Please model this.
Amino acid sequence: PHPYCHTCEKEQNQIRYQLKQEHPRESRPTHCECCGVAESKIRRSLVLDHCHITGIFRGWICAKCNVGLGGLGDDLEGVQKGLDYLKRAYEKD
Model:
């Protein structure tokens, strides 16, 4: 959703609220489910991650992973392109 679209923002807030009811903070893990860093080692608490298209809960992750996944398009194709890029860069060394 576009950050300035109030309708999209309202819809995402409703999805997050519903998911937080279904997956309360008490049930969240002690580590980021993406990178594995302990919640005690990060600045903020873990955030609820969900697919913005389907609204499906994916897990509890740290803010860095949340921003990173979002920056790569929040999909497998974007993450694969990032991985391919890093592989090419390391092969040059």
